[in-house]
Amino acid sequence: MRDDIIAGLDIGSSAIRLVVGQKNLNNNAEQLQIIGAVEVPSSGINKGVVTSIEDTTSSISACLEKAERLIGVPISSVWVSINGPHIKCERSRGVVAVSKSDGEVTEDDVARAIEAARALSVPPNYEILHVIPVRFTVDNQEDIKDPIGMTGVRLEVETLIVQGLSSQIKNLTKAIYRTGLDIDDLVLSPLAASEAVIGAKQKELGAALVNIGASTTSVAIFEEGEILHAAVLPIGSEHITSDVAIGLRCPINLAERIKVEYGSAKSDQFNKKDEVDVSELAEAEDLGGELTTVSQKYISEIIQARAEEIFEKIDAEFKKIDRSGMLPAGVFLIGGGSKLEGVVDVAKDSLRLPAAIGANKGLSSVIDKVNDPSFLTALGLVVWGDQLTRKRKGFNVKWSGGEMVGKSFEKIKNWFSSLLP
User: Which residue among 14, 83, 214, 263 is the one 20 to 30 A from 158 at the CA level?
Assistant: First the structure.
């Protein structure tokens, strides 16, 4: 693969999306441009977890083939999102003595402090995905963003350590390696998406990214430019569809169409007389005559109840770090579930915060598709990959922790390489 191509692969429970970016030189400055975005329905994935390696591999292969036909360039490596309820986040501190005799903090001191913070007791079946420095302390001066060049005796770092279940990580990487792709790194899904959606000013003030997928909802909370907390909840927009199917006693395919075309998460905008004719949808699903008219208020009440439950669970995550109702820049909603009418209003009411649908914050693209809320995670992976490959100085982009993950599945990769013709 050419060095100027960066690909982001978002493996979801309902669809697999691949966004491809290319680095172009513009006035002697590198600029990232999106040149392709494709999606295919996924199989073998449930709640962000691989349930069948065979099915997952064939879905990824189909997506890869579609992308390569579109851009006309082979793709050999991808940045991959990982998103399952098995993800855990923990705080850890590391303390080291500054090594230079004049007390100046060097990159080596920072690296040692972060390494000391990694030394926490990880359960035997878990492995570390990211070690993210949140804030540094030099002697007694707290809340330092970048301590390199400062003077002191004692350097302390507070980090957020993101861990994933080893078996789930290995299953995911195995499915990807079987397609012949290399993995640049695994990135926590809301963390990657935030790179494309939330600006530096908003991260400074305090903001949250909520990705409502088909069967999981992931959250990342930022303040003072750093991530405070992340979580993946095992509930998503498919649960809303299931509720509609039970409420209307209709098949799941029809419930999905009714939800998308007539559903709303705000029931108070309808009265009991508002009815919609769903006979055409029923005929399209070969269910003619079973359902004719349904109350729009009734559908909305079902959807609103489940949407409120999703946001209550999100608020519970905010409460864990004492940020409930206290993020001035508000909540950015992305993912397929955020496109449902009225979801933003429910978010505002339930979380008591400003809320809006997340959007691509200024990455040039000739493809409108990447501005769709469901493509923003894959787009964020491309931005994340671009930032890390530039090897900028400073620790705001040295987050990956991917070297460690890389070592753990290097063996699997080599094994698959030996099997490939």
Answer: 83
| Residue 114 CB neighbour total at 10 angstroms | 21
Burial class (CB in 10 A: 0-12, 13-18, 19+), 149: exposed
What's the distance, CA 76 to chain centroid? 22
- The packing angle between helices 166-177 and 53-71, to 10°, is 50
Count the helix, strand and coil residues of the chain and give each as a percent rounded to the nearest 5: 40, 30, 30
Residues in Cβ contact with 142 at an 8 Å cutoff, skipping those fewer than 6 apart: 135
pLDDT (tens digit, 0 to 9) for every residue of the chain, 421 residues total? 477 899 999 999 999 999 999 988 777 777 888 999 999 999 999 988 999 999 999 999 999 999 999 999 999 999 999 998 999 999 999 999 999 999 999 999 999 999 999 988 888 999 999 999 999 999 989 889 899 999 999 999 999 999 999 999 999 999 999 999 999 999 999 999 999 999 999 999 999 999 999 999 999 999 999 999 999 999 999 999 999 999 999 889 999 999 999 999 999 999 888 898 888 888 877 776 567 789 999 999 999 999 999 999 999 999 999 999 999 999 999 999 999 999 999 999 999 999 999 999 878 777 888 889 999 999 999 999 998 887 543 444 344 444 444 445 565 666 556 666 5
Q: How far apart are CA 292 and CA 273, in angstroms?
A: 15
CB atoms inside a 10 Å sphere around CB 86: 20
| Alpha carbons 78 and 294: distance in angstroms, whole number | 45
* CA 242 to each of CA 14, 123, 235, 305: distance values in angstroms, whole numbers, following the listed order: 14, 35, 12, 13
Q: Cα separation of 22 and 75, whole Å?
A: 12
In sequence order, the β-bridge partners of residue 210 are 219, 333
Q: How many CA atoms within 13 Å lie on the side-chain side of 42?
A: 30
Q: Which domains does the chain possess?
A: 88-165 (3.30.1490.110), 199-358 (3.30.420.40)
Strand 77-82's sheet: what is its strand order? 29-41, 15-26, 5-11, 77-82, 182-188
**The CA-based dihedral angle spanning residues 217, 237, 348, 308, taken in that order and rounded to the nearest 10 degrees:** -100
